[in-house]
Amino acid sequence: MSSTLEALLLGIIEGLTEFLPVSSTGHLLIAQHFIGEQRSDFFNIVIQAGAILAITLVFRQRLWSLATGLGERHNRDYAIKIAAAFLVTALVGLPVRLLGWELPETVTPIAWALVIGGVWMILAERLAERRGDRTDVTWTVAVLVGLAQVVAGVFPGTSRSAAAIFIAMLAGLSRRSSATEFVFLVGIPTMFAASAYAFLELWNDGALGGEAWDEVGIAFAAATLTGFLVVRWLLGYIKGHRYTGFAVYRILLGIALLLWLPASA
Question: pLDDT by residue for the chain (265 residues), tens digit each?
Fold first, then answer.
């Protein structure tokens, strides 16, 4: 497989999996294992930036209505809670990152995170459904969503979206579509900040340069387009479907990784 085609494939995988509750980290690891080429940290940051751009485009009207409607109490309250969730992630997540509290991105921890996360998704969704159809974002929801994003960063394979969506549903935001929208909106500043911080780390370490820019551009475009289509599809899908299919997929994938791929991958 040519390196250009590999870049395209990795961009598509990032766009497909970044916002689905299935772990983009796990899927990129699997892809790079079979491709046999480990891409640079800069490459991974760029394709994640493509996914961020995608979700920003999907929610552009919602973001505009929030920005221009801050005079209304409901919009102002919602925007403040998005900011609060982001601040919790930043204030807790930065020290965690600086202290190096993160499991390695190898097959075994990712596989276990996929399995455990899949079981958690099934149980959490069932419990949330017993609480009725709630759509209000409380302060508890905002704080726990922020903390869930930190947990997802510590345990590769957890999936940021899965951890945050289902903790939001358990905390009271029980309608799937409402929980998903809030988590995705919180994810925009979170992912922008994380990517910018990672970029600055590379800059300070002198680790930039030597990239095949055509491949980086192809991967970025692929992640953006694929991510846009996936998020649009998911927002419609969850209005009438549970997340159970994604949970079962996670469990089967995790078991397959534990059985067939070496722990050192």
Answer: 688 898 899 999 999 999 999 988 778 877 877 776 677 777 888 888 899 999 999 999 999 999 999 999 999 999 999 999 999 999 998 888 778 777 776 778 888 999 999 999 999 999 988 887 888 899 999 999 999 999 988 888 888 899 999 999 999 898 899 999 999 999 999 988 888 887 887 788 776 666 777 888 999 999 999 999 999 999 999 988 999 999 999 999 999 888 876 544 4
Locus of tokens 């960063």:
153
